Every structure is written in C-alpha cells, then in structure tokens.
Amino acid sequence: MEKITAPDDWLAANRANWDWRVPVHVASEFYDVPGFVAGKEVLRDFELAEVGDVSGKSLLHLQCHFGQDTLSWARRGATVTGLDFSRPAVEAATGLAGRIGADSARFVVSDVYDAVDALDGQRFDVVYTGLGALCWLPDITRWARTAAALVAPGGFLYLAEFHPFADSLGEDGRTVEYDYFHREATVWDEASTYTDGEPAPTAATVTVEWQHGVGEVVSALAAAGLRIEFLHEHDFTVFARFPVLEHDRVFRYPDGQPGVPLMYSVRASKPA
Known about the structure:
- This protein is an alpha/beta fold.
- It has helices at residues 10-26, 33-37, 45-51, 68-75, 87-100, 115-118, 140-150, 214-223, and strands at residues 2-3, 58-62, 79-84, 106-109, 124-129, 151-162, 186-189, 206-209, 227-234, 236-237, 246-248, 250-252, 263-269.
- It has a seven-stranded mixed sheet, with helices on both faces. A three-stranded antiparallel sheet has the order 1-7-8.
- β11 (246-248) and β12 (250-252) form a beta hairpin.
- α1 runs parallel beside α5 and α7 packs across α8.
- It starts with a strand and ends with a strand.
C-alpha cells in the first residue's frame, strides 16, 4: 500500500476502483451470493433491533454497492430503492433482486450528492446507510443535507458505521498512532480489495478517503434539521480489525481488558 498525491478527480478515481471491485466481490466467499440467494441474513443484529419493523415502509439505501443489505430490508417487507455511483454494482444488484424475486426493488445509478435529483425528489420513510460508506465522501455537511432532504416527514435516517477512533489505533489495536482529527484526503494506490479471491489486474488502483469524527457527523445531521434519537457506540466490530480481538459472532476485546468503541450507530428523525 502506497500513499500518494490526491488526484484532481477523486470521484472518478473512486468510481473506477469500485467498478473493478464489483465482479470480485460478487464472486467472493466473503459476500457468499449463493448463501444470500438461499436466504442467509446479512444485516447485523443491532441494525435490525435499532431500525425496527420496516414492513410496508419505503426504504432508501444510499451507497448500496451490489444490494445485499438493500434486498435484506426488502425481505423484511420494505419497498426498497438502492443508490450507488457504480453502474456495474447497480446492474449486479438488479440481477440479484431478480434471483430472489424482489420484483419491486429498484436500483439507481447516482453519486450520493446527486441523489435528490436522481430520485426526482422522492422521500422515504427510512433512509439507511451502512458500513464503510462515509469514508468515501469529502463533505459530511453536504451529505447530511442530502440525506435529510430524502427523509419523509415522520421518517428517519439510520446510520451504522465503523467508529473513526479505531482508525487512530496502530496494528496492535492498543496504541494511538494516528490523528483522530485528520481531515485531509488520504490517497492509496493498492491493487487489492477486502474480500477473498484474486483480483484481475487493473489500472484503477487509486482510492481517496476521508475521516469524519463522530461529533462532526452527528452535528451535521442536527444542523440539517433532523432530531437525534440516539447515538450508540459499540464495543464490537464485524471483522478481525486487530489481532487482539476475540471472535464470538462479533469481534471484541477480551473480557477484563480495556475496550474502545469499534462501531457506532445513529438514528435521526424528521418531524412529521
């Protein structure tokens, strides 16, 4: 992994990289598409509990990738729309919807900042955004305004994310080595992805990411007119982020040892 200078068009660089990731991810054991088609649940227990019953509700999933989480909400009774900037991801999601019989599911190609126009001003009972999404966005205030504009009166936004404090820790998961308040772009040139499988050679290896503090995210949502119902910080994560973590359905620090927040979730509603 090599840190390099940020490209002028970060959006095009990130889109090209994610276009390349789609077939690798669809074929990976990590995403286990055959298991998903057979009925495997991919949403996390805490998300299901915190979002609640979605039966009969309209739900928008921002930055949906190839749609497994989106379609999991459809299986639970929501009328779902997924939005992603990668056309190959949206095509894969549409195909996956057909395989599981989610005929009402809709997938739209759009950058998240253009979502209001791409969705023709439609508003939704639930706007959902899942793990590993916010780091790809440079302007969290603009994101919050966009997300808030998509929430119907009486509805809510639900965000589940990896906790940015964990990005301050070194590989041992114990030592603070990086600046939590770093807000400049971080650029990587890396010919791999986080799933299993051997990626095909590609020229689209450059990605650009940003770190957003929890206070920054919550303040942006409040400033966009949403009412914060809760902010939950979780002492677990969903992958082996650090070797010190123990695995029992989720990954967390061993009992009797100090822990730090590894994930967080926010629910923010729009007044009726």
